[in-house]
Design brief:
Elements: E1 2-3, E2 12-14, H1 15-24, E3 28-29, E4 37-45, E5 50-61, E6 70-73, E7 77-83, H2 96-101, E8 107-112, H3 116-133
Antiparallel strand pairs: 1-7, 2-6, 3-4, 4-5, 5-6, 5-7, 7-8
Length: 134
């Protein structure tokens, strides 16, 4: 994880006002959201591992599953996931049903070192997001 200093940190927005703007830049709401927090994630590249720019937030009013939610951003960061290439040796021993549910490999590193070129790229993308939203 590589934290980025940002003017976005602690900024408060109605979710409906910014979700479309961030989606226009390729961001999606991350899969690990809960009713009271979540993140906007951008897959910057998938070489050298998967390179993400993550904009985490907390819900300050309402909840993510309802219209009218208000969010407050936390410190943005870059994240690298490095995956094993090839077959996962642990798949298939448990049976067809379990194997079909657990078909994805565990990363070699869930929090790998972010290459310098993606630190620069992530900062540039974040700056353009700040300029648009603030």
């Amino acid at each position: 994880m590589y934290p980025l200093k940002s003017k976005l940190e602690n900024a408060i927005f109605p979710l409906n006002d910014i979700e479309g703007k961030l989606k226009n830049h390729g961001f999606v709401i991350g899969a690990n959201w809960e009713y009271d927090h979540g993140s906007f994630d951008l897959l910057m590249r998938d070489d050298d591992g998967y390179q993400y720019l993550r904009l985490p937030f907390n819900v300050t009013s309402g909840s993510l599953d309802m219209n009218g939610a208000v969010i407050q951003f936390e410190t943005p960061f870059l994240l690298t996931h490095i995956y094993n290439e090839g077959l996962d040796d642990n798949i298939g021993y448990e049976g067809n049903l379990t194997g079909s549910l657990n078909q994805f490999q565990e990363p070699i590193e869930k929090d790998g070192k972010v290459p310098r070129k993606y630190q620069i790229k992530g900062f540039e993308i974040l700056k353009s997001i700040e300029d648009e939203l603030l």
